[in-house]
Specification:
Helix content of chain A: 55-70%
Largest interface: A-B, 33 and 33 residues
Shape of chain A: globular
Oligomer: homodimer
Chain lengths: 199, 199
DNA sequence: TCAATAAATCGACAGGTGTCGCGTAAGCAT
DNA sequence: ATGCTTACGCGACACCTGTCGATTTATTGA
């Protein structure tokens, strides 16, 4: 119970928002180091020692911030995805536009981060993107003062997983269509889920 | 390219179906050993050495069958899930019944395997259950001689992810409803996805 | 039955992982 | 400026991982 809570605090990092400049600097350097290494080799082939070296930090310092390299990747992914979405404005005033924009964001982010080298979108990503998308749906649902037949949280979860799964498959398809077109298809598939909450 | 194909062969195991009694015996013992250990501790806290010891096999023998412990868990999960579904008949004659049955299967399987001890449904499971569910949707779609507006494969993927994500969330909910009721909710959420393929 | 084939065992290896205690130095508050 | 707090560096630890070559044991087909 307690351990779980602690791990959560460490992983989410934004719990106390961390103001100490040394902490901010270390985490920034670790993320930059990982980004640099990801351009050279696969994530699985990167050791914590390499990340620490590239960040000019001690390996022990790494573990002071993240329990393992997956946690670093996850934190990085979540931050970059949120930033990408935020940069695009994404007003929740009209729902249809927002849904399509989120879908496009997921597609763009996946193709951006897994660009040419790594062929398969790995699991750690799911732990960071899906919760972020769920959060957006939650925010969107709150504007609706919904009367959920099922449970708006559950709808958001199902929609987020469907969206991510579809985007993931799209990315792995050889002769894939454009991200914009895929976003349209995803919108068509996912919208009915969110609608099914209406009594 | 070649390495990937090899790994696939090793992981899927059912490629040549493996008739050698020594192989069957070893894999059975490894799976039984893992099941036994999972009742005592978390998957992450189990080492390959422990699995091999519990199976009264040499550690090197383990690597003769699976590239790592995740592969073993995945193979085990996929086999047990397929078996659970198969045991329930699950005729694809009427679509609505099948969809609900699959949803119930996922819920039951998750609650069965992650019973009391481990609190969170871990990622390796996704790699085994989701593809299995996708396969069922693929089979179901083939009976429909569909004229897909989007792409029936993509619809199946989105539906499988939505279903798994919802079931996963349900499992983690403290005061959760019955598996049967949840299966009904999942059916309601997912059906529109599969329908959205119609022109 | 016997030889060919292939699985299982054994010991050992070069790495990687996560954690510790202890000392140094950077940041912060009074 | 001064002392308290805390991040960081350092070295070392026990353990786990994935792989190898050499040997023994079981299975299968002729």
């Amino acid at each position: 119970m307690l351990e779980g809570a602690m791990a959560q605090v460490i992983q989410s990092d934004t719990a106390v928002e961390a103001t100490d400049p040394r902490i901010l600097r270390s985490r920034r350097m670790l993320m930059d180091a990982l980004i640099k290494l990801l351009n050279e080799k696969e994530f699985e082939d990167i050791s914590v020692q390499e990340i620490a070296d590239a960040a000019t930090l001690n390996r022990a310092t790494f573990y002071l911030h993240y329990p393992d390299k997956n946690a670093l990747l996850q934190a990085m992914t979540a931050a970059r995805f949120r930033e990408l979405i935020a940069r695009r404005g994404l007003s929740f005033t009209d729902c249809d536009g927002a849904l399509r924009a989120i879908a496009l964001g997921v597609c763009d982010y996946l193709s951006e981060t897994t660009g040419c080298p790594s062929q398969l979108t790995k699991m750690p990503l799911e732990g960071s993107i899906i919760p972020a998308v769920e959060g957006m749906f939650r925010e969107g649902a709150s504007k609706h003062e919904a009367r959920p037949a099922v449970d708006s949280e559950m709808l958001g979860t199902a929609a987020a997983w469907a969206m991510f799964g579809a985007a993931r498959r799209w990315l792995q398809t050889p002769g894939r269509v454009s991200a914009e077109e895929m976003a349209g298809q995803i919108e068509a598939m996912v919208k009915p889920i969110l609608m099914s909450g209406a009594v």
